[in-house]
Design brief:
It is a single chain. The chain has 2 domains: about 160 residues, Jelly Rolls (Sandwich); about 130 residues, Jelly Rolls. The chain is about 5% helix and about 45% strand. The chain is built from 2 helices and 28 strands. The strands form 6 sheets. It has a 7-stranded antiparallel beta sheet. A 7-stranded antiparallel beta sheet has the order 2-3-4-11-6-9-15. It is globular and about 60 Å long. The model has no long low-confidence stretch (mean pLDDT about 95).
């Protein structure tokens, strides 16, 4: 098979960004690997964050506009959301809508808490508030704020779900006979509206979708278990648990085939003007539904 392209990344092979020593006094510590940047995505960020036992992964914070989310890959910990402190474990998924729901994770087990985290990128418009520091950051500039000027903190237990508690539904692809994904809509279950994230299981020998690409959103896949091969354009590449696959908007069409049963997280964005193109089927999907764009092959 051809050499791996940039868009397929193995997290453990990436150089890690470690938290600076100055954060130790605040009990903040982390090791971050930026998956989406390495894979060429620009419209959203996806990272692996590893938090040592007894530390928090970030300062307590919230965004004015951006949606964020986090999925626990390994370990145990606590997620703090506003006035709540909730236990998390492998398979826990937490949604962070914008607004005064300050949040962060604490690694409370014997080993590190390992999180796959992501969210929107609204660099030019969003601001991030750190209530315990009395700081609001926007466009890389910090300003001091009075803690008393902040709105009352919000947060609800419904922002946290466990994958095993979300119903699995078989989704048959309308254009690809025999293609079935067993999917859990963890994004909607936890309250996300713009960021898409689903837990998916595909049986051995099955394909994940019809060969396609998107015009209006990046897509990504993080393999949790099993082995597969992914087609990017005309080339096939081997992938396995721990691999991240990025599909930038308007990049090569793609599909994945499971060699063994696979489970994975997949994500993107809900974009109103996105168009899904199926080049080999001569079809596209818009808000109006499926449309033919090429003559039917003979």
């Amino acid at each position: 098979m051809p050499d791996r392209p940039r868009s397929i990344v193995r997290g453990e092979d990436l150089a890690a960004l470690d938290s600076p020593p100055r954060l130790a006094a605040a009990r903040v510590g982390f090791r971050v690997r930026p998956l989406s940047d390495a894979a060429g995505l620009t419209r959203m960020g996806v990272k692996i964050r590893e938090i040592p036992p007894g530390l928090t992964g970030t300062h307590l914070h919230f965004h004015d506009l951006e949606e964020e989310w986090a999925y626990v890959l390994a370990g145990r910990g606590i997620v703090r959301i506003g006035p709540l402190s909730l236990p998390v474990r492998s398979g826990s998924f937490t949604a962070f809508p914008p607004g005064p729901r300050p949040h962060h994770f604490v690694a409370s087990g014997d080993g590190p808490l390992v999180i796959l985290e992501g969210g929107e990128r609204r660099w030019g418009e969003d601001s991030c508030t750190y209530p315990e520091l009395g700081v609001r950051s926007c466009r890389g500039e910090d300003e001091r704020i009075e803690p008393g000027s902040l709105p009352a903190f919000e947060g609800g237990a419904e922002q946290l779900v466990h994958t095993g508690d979300v119903d699995e539904r078989a989704r048959k692809h309308p254009l690809a006979e025999g293609v079935v994904r067993h999917q859990r809509a963890i994004d909607a279950a936890a309250g996300l509206t713009r960021q898409a994230c689903a837990f998916v299981r595909v049986e051995a020998g099955g394909e994940t979708t019809a060969f396609h690409t998107h015009t209006g959103t990046d897509e990504w896949v993080y393999l949790l278990s099993g082995e597969a091969e992914v087609r990017l354009g005309s080339d096939w590449h081997d992938v396995a648990a721990g691999d991240f696959i990025g599909h930038p908007a308007n990049s090569a069409a793609h599909v994945m085939r499971a060699r063994s049963e696979i489970t994975y997280l997949m994500g993107g964005e809900h974009v109103a003007d996105d168009v899904v193109l199926y080049p080999e089927l001569g079809m596209r999907l818009t808000r109006a539904g499926f449309e033919r764009i090429l003559p039917t092959p003979t």
